[in-house]
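Record 1 of the preview.
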Amino acid sequence: YYQKQFFSGKDHPLSKRDELMHYDLEVSGFPSSHAGHLVLLGLTEQDYPGAKRIEDWPTWDLPILRWGKAQGAVVGFAHSGWGLAVKSSDLPNYEMPGFDGIGANEYIVDVTYPDAVDFISTMDTPDLWELNIWYQTLNVGFRTRVSGETDFPCITDSRVGQGRVYAKVSGPLSYSAWLNAVRAGRSYVSEGKSHLMDFSVNGTEVGTNSSQVRLDAPATVRVTAKAAGYLDPVPNPALHDLPYDRAPYWDIERARIGSKREVPVELVVNGKAVARKNIVADGKVNELAFDVSIERSSWVALRILGSSHTNPIFVVVGGRPIRASRQSAAWCLAAVNQCWTQKAPKISKVELADAEKAYDHAREVYKKLIEESR
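->
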């Protein structure tokens, strides 16, 4: 509880008009940490009801997320990939992780409750481990966003801002306006060496209009964005060829095409790259446009894999929900079962019945999604 003294619920006095400092809370080293470290942004109250010491806090995540949301906070998971390790280099892949770490493990349960979780974090753990669980849940219709994370100096001490979220704020900068942009997904994540700006589908910019585009029937949509990147002119093979589960996990050098000073910007639909355009990574901004056929309700995003990723835009066809992959729905159901084997032994006896109900709820949701997906 030492750090409680720094919490005020307000911007730090050292803040400037265009540089804000604000102290909030990561739920780390608490009884629920085994289920996933949580990030709670925009809290007005930092003491969990009835808790006089850390040991009094819940031993699983959902009650804490709900408590944060009741305050109007923006809530999500930190270092998402821990506990989600797989050997596959495919994205998405259907290998089952251990769910035995402190990342976005219990997210697979929490996401089945409306408005329980806003985002999962990226940039601090291997990209495929972070993105795989996100893609699976997007494929069955959930609308969680991603944010950036550094976790300085615990996971990384190379620099503050190693993992970033670039959020587009309307009007003057304020912490609440920035949080609203993060919540809405009016943002992209990057390690700072590439940028995917003003991502839009049929003129609807990500994070506006609920990031949603409606089509009466299958149609071709126009995807636009401004993309830029910066690579050193001289390749760094040692970094480029580094296995993806070795740090630094996100770096534009990983995306370099051969020995060229180019990287691919990929158009992703329902987790699959369906088109790409290469850009010269010399720091200049490129205007990009893709035309893609959307046959059914889908989520759409842009990425420079290993360097940056937009939040999704949801294209709804004929009013039907996104049910892009029965295989993803089945993976999610199996993931709930695996997660329970790891978390149940560490949940207190007084909370175990409520936790079991939540896991059972998630199982029923995914069973229904399996039936609805194709």
